[in-house]
Amino acid sequence: MRPRVEEVRIQGLGVIDEAVLELSPGFTVVTGETGAGKTMVVTGLGLLFGGRADPARVRPGADKALIEGTLVIEAEGRVAQQVGDVGGEVEDGQLIISRSVSAEGRSRAWLGGRAVPVGTLTYIADDLVAVHGQMDQQRLLQPGRQRAALDRYAGDELVKPLRAYEQAYKRHKQVGDLLHELTAKARERAQEADVLRFGLEEIEKAEPRQGEDVELKEEAERLSHADALRTAATTAHAALLGDPMTTAQDVQDAVSLLGHARTAVESVRDFDPALAGLGERLAEAGYLVSDVATELAAYAESVEADPARLAAVQERRATLNGLMRKYGEDVSAVLAWAQRAAERLTELDGDDDRIEELTREHGELGGRLAELAGELTAIRTAAAERFGEAVTKELTALAMPHARVSVAITAAGEFGPHGVDEVELRLASHPGAPPLPLTKGASGGELSRVMLAIEVVFAGADPVPTFVFDEVDAGVGGKAAVEIGRRLAKLARTAQVIVVTHLPQVAAFADQHLVVEKASDGRVVRSGVVALDREGRERELSRMLAGLEDSELGRAHAAELLSIAAADKGAWEKEASKAGRGSGRRAATG
């Protein structure tokens, strides 16, 4: 099953109030009077597949424009997988895509019922549709687009070497940028290294220890208040255990008072167990107070005023404070800075070796790029010759029998992201004429035919399921218009083709004919889309031919065009059927 666009609903877009397009799997044309909104059909399809949102396209008086498309796709195909990857759903092989554009310029998109970024629609569209309006023709005139078009035509043969080249180019650029940075900033790196070395030498000379700043602070506090600490410990000891140097009998220490209390309780403890328990607790308190008093005495003996040690501690703290002012809020932070500085210094000192290594790699990559670029040029040159011949052959069928399309490939001055090739499509419109760039060598009508020829060639090399053309026949008439209709009809044998046209010769070859009708209510124009039957097609073709729907001559000419188109398509079907039977017989014989 070939993927295709089955139905498109348009609301509030340009002059279209509301329209529904049910599209043929083959060749569908859209026609209508000037100003009826034919181009809005292509605009709507463009928006549906990720085109740029222009709030000016929203119908006056409407809050927003809404486009909804129903597509038939393979349930297990690549597109269905891409839809599933973003959380969308494909039901019974049908995919719903929606796009809205508000009058304020806000744009939203939905894919398979799931809100997605608009860019997702563009990504999905690559496998589904090619929309070609007049602006798309102008884009193909850009050199970069022409190179991409040739690469697309070259196909699988170019994919692997191009991928290898792009990877090598990316690495070559990374190495080149890094080399430039290393060599251009040599002075800054040398200055940074000097600063790091000075700091490391200063820290190594001081030899700070982890937590040393906290220890010295505590020691300085003790040495600065040695007399007060000793006095406090001695006073507390005397209060707990008494002062052995005094003979006063009326001063009682805590241990003696606890002893008296314990003696009083012990004398009657046998009469009440509760009081006996309190006596035991008094005994424990006495032991505890005695221990504390003993430790206070030892502490008082250990505390000594040492001016020399205090001076040494203060000097060491000054040294550490100097480091902390420069390298961190405490000694731990200073040591961490030293570790980082040593690592960075090792990195900077190794830059010379690194520059040498990168220079060698850069040269090797340059050689590899030259080799791959040469391979790309060879593939593109061969593809360019085939491409030019194929497009030229198509132009012969489009009433340009003497025109010749060629592809000029020239070498750029340096490596680029896609090689060293500059690609330019050229057209020689008649024998003896020099090949000129399309912008200079093709008129409006010729350019339209060249674009159609290119798309027909692309359809055989890299098929896209659906093609949309907006007035690809602009500036063309007569026999050339008939040939364009034939080529579009042949393209529709392998793809869905949707064409907005003003030429009856083109419209006659369609499998389905839609007309955009308009009616005025005095204030606004409302447009709708109607599918025509055979009689309706004759009337519309007559209008397009003579400007009169009911002109007998116009109707006769329209009928003749439809008959010619039907005969051509019938002949193609017979040829295809005969070719199928022939291949079947050969297979059976084999």
Automatic annotation (TrEMBL):
Residues 6-521 form the RecF/RecN/SMC N-terminal domain. Keywords: ATP-binding, DNA damage, DNA repair, Nucleotide-binding. It comes from the Bacteria. Signal peptide: none annotated. The keyword DNA damage applies. Belongs to the RecN family. This is DNA repair protein RecN. It comes from Microbispora triticiradicis. The gene is recN.
